[in-house]
C-alpha cells in the first residue's frame, strides 16, 4: 500500500482521486501495490465528499510519515512553489500538473529532488493526458531532437477550428468557447499564447538540457487572426494553428509562439477542436506526432497517476527528466531564423510586393492578394517587408524540418 | 562504457550501429555513460565496414563478459529464439525489433529474463520508431485500455493511399510499392495482414496481460480491395485502412485484422503513405494517437537504442512490459462483436437489402449501391446479409469507442 497526498482539490486534483478510485485494480497491478489517497489539502470545504475525513487545511498533515508521494495540482508559482520545496526537502516525491511552476522553477526543483533522493515528475504539465514528457526524454533518447512544433492549447485550437470550419469571427468563436467552458472568462492566458509558451518552454528545456525561460520566447496569440486570414489559408491549402515551436541548431535554441500556416498534408493540420498534437523531429526517427486531449479532468489526472505509478516502481531519481539552470548563450539570434511568411496586402500593393520578394505566386481574394515568401532570414524578411505597401497581415509558414541523418 | 552486441547486421542492425555512431554524445548524456558496439554476429562478410574487427560468425563471442546487452535484429522465430534464450540465460539483457519472436514466445522470454535478473525489451517490434510499447505500459498505466486501432503496416498503407489519391488499381499500386522498395517481391506478409497481426498481438498482450496468439486473430488483408470500394469510401466521407484492432470488454478480448472504413474526422484517416498511426482508447484519457514512421532503418534503430539506454539506466526488470502465458477464456465469441459494415450490392438488390437491414441510407455509384448497416452483432449481420442478393463487397466500419468514465 502506497499512501499519497493531494494539494489542491480542483478539476485535476479531484480527477486524480476519481481515477485512483475507478481504476484501483489495474493501477495496483501496474504499480505492484495498491495506491490510496490519505490526505487532501485544500482551503475549501467538501462536505459532500464520500471521504470527508481525507481533507485538511494544514500543510503539515502532508508531511505524515505514511505519505511518500504528493500530487500538486493547485497551480501557480507562489504557494505551490513553497509547498513543493518543503515536500521535496522532507523526502517526499512530488508529481505535478503545474506548468507555470515547472516552466519557472523546474531546474531548481529537480536539483532539490535529486539532493533528497526523491523525484519531481510533471508529465501532466504539457499535453494533458498525452504522453509527451516521458517519450521525449526516454523513448526518443537515441535521437538528437532538432525541432518540436506543438498545438499545445485546446482553447485556441477550438476557436481556430470553429473559425475555419464555420467561417465565424474570432469574437464569436471565443464567446462560444466560453459558453462551453473551454475558455475562461478572462481568456488572456490562452488566446495571448502564455499557456502555450509555458508548455513549449518545458518541452524545450527537456530536449535542450537547461532551463528555457518564458520571457525569452517571443509570444503572439490569436486575437488578430481574422476571417480573411482563415479564408486565405484555406485557399493556400493550409490551416492556421497556434504553434509553440522550438528548434535547436548548432547548440542554440530558437523558440517562439505564434499563429502558423500549416499545410494540409502536415499531420498537425488535422488536429482539431480541443485536441492537442505535438510533432517532434528527431535525426533518426524523422517526424513523430503525439495526439490527444490536451486538457480536461480525467486525461490530465491519468497522466498524474501514471507518474505516481512510475515513482512507486522506481523511487530513486535516475536523472531522467533532468535539466539544469539556464546557461549562457542558449538562444539563437532571432533575426537569424530561417523562415517564410504568408503576407496579405491590398491589391494595389502588388508591384511593391514583387519588387520586395520577387516573382511570388499570387492568390487573390476580393481586393486583397496573398503570397508566400521564399525561405529567408527573419531580418531579411523584415527589411523587404518594410518596402511593401498596405500590408494587412503576415503569418509564419510551417517549413519542413531537416532530413534524417 | 557499456558494450553491446548486435545479432543480424541487416537493415535495422546496421541502423543501430549508425545511430550509436552518429548520436554518440547525446546517447552518452542520456545513458550516463558511453555506449559502444563490441561484437556483431552475422553469417555474411562486411569487408568494406569501417570496423571489420567487430564482426564474428561465432555466437559464443557474444557471451563475452564485457557485453551486458545484446540487440537482436535478425528476425524470425527460429535461430533468433534459440539465441535469445541462451543470451538471457547467460545474464545478458536483450533488445529486439523481432515482432515474430515477441508475438510467438514473448511471455516465455520475459519469464526467462526475469528469472535471470535481466530485461527483454521490444519497443521497436511495433510501429518502428514510434513510441508505443513504453507509453502503453507506462504513461497510460492509470487507464483501463478498452480499445486499440492501429495502422501498423506501412506497405499496405502506401498502397491504399495510392489507390485513394490517384485512383490506381491495387495491382498497380503494389507494383509501385515494390519499385520503391516499400514492398517485398513476395508481399504476402504485408498485404495479407500477417505483419499487422503480429503487431496487434503484441500490443494486445501488453494491455491484456497474457499472451494473445496470432492464430486466434482473424486476419484479412487488402488484396480484394477494389477501386470501386475506394470510390464508395470517398463518397461516404471515409478512407479505407488496413486496421489491426483489439477491444477488451468484460475481461474478454476481441482482436482482428481487416480493411476498415475510417471516417474522415477520425485521426487515423489522416495517416497516409508509409506512416503508421496507433489510436488507443483509455477510460480516463479518451482517444490518444501515436503517429510516425512505422518502419525504416533509422526510425526502427532509434527505438532499439532507446531500449538499450533504458536498460543501462534500469538494468533490473521492474516487471514493466510483462505478460503471462496465454490463459483460458481469453477470447470473446467473435459472433458477439458489435459491429457495422459498409455493404456494396448490385442496384437490383436494393429491395433485398432494405428487407434485411431496414431503411439504410443508400449511396449510388453506377449500377451499384452502397449502404452502412446499423451497429449489430456479427452473427446478426451475417444472418441478415445472407438474405441480400448480389453482394459485391462488405467492409467493416470504424465505430466510436465508449465514452470516458
Characteristic key phrases:
405 residues, homodimer, six-stranded parallel β-sheet, nine-stranded mixed β-sheet, 34% helix, alpha/beta, 17 strands, elongated
Order of helices and strands of chain A: EHHEEEHEHEHEHHHHHEEEEHEEHEEEHE
How large a portion of the residues of chain A is in β-strands, by DSSP E? 15-25%
User: Which structural class do you get from the secondary structure elements of chain A?
Assistant: alpha/beta
Q: Helical element count of chain A?
A: 13
Q: Give the total of beta strands of chain A.
A: 17
Biggest contact: A-B, 63 and 63 residues
The main sheet of chain A comes to:
9 strands, mixed
| Rough outline of chain A | elongated
Oligomeric assembly: homodimer
For the record, give the distance between the C-alpha atoms at the N and C termini of chain A, rounded to a whole number: 47 Å
Report the average pLDDT across residues of chain A. 93
Low-confidence stretches of chain A: none
| Helix coverage percent of chain A | 25-40%
Strand order of the largest sheet of chain A: 11-10-7-8-9-17-13-15-14
Please compute the radius of gyration of chain A using only Cα atoms.
23 Å
